[in-house]
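Hi,

Apologies if this is the wrong queue. I'm a grad student, and the batch job for Serine esterase from Pandoraea eparura produced an output file that my downstream script rejects. I'm not sure whether the problem is my script or the file. Here is the sequence I used:
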Amino acid sequence: MSYARTNVSPWRDVMAPQFDLLAEVLRFFDEHLLGKTTGLTNESPIHYFNMHAEQWAASIVDYYPDWAERCASMFGFDTTPYADATAVVGHPVAGLRISID
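Support response: The file is valid. Your script probably expects a header line. Output copied below for reference.
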């Protein structure tokens, strides 16, 4: 697993982060260069602001070493209807089929 970290915010160019960025950088170096246990590897590597929910969220991405197995389903997603509202994060492109009884 990669321990890269990112913080995605629509305001990152105009506002200072609400956390000590230098402290996060030093914590990363302590963990990976000095071998200190900082708890960094136990945290989600991706933090983003969900504008619809108006709150911060975190995510973990596990990359597969062999993408060949994923290619068949990489460009498609099919599911039964969701019972509750569902957040879709990123830049999805969707083709919808809608029916009304």
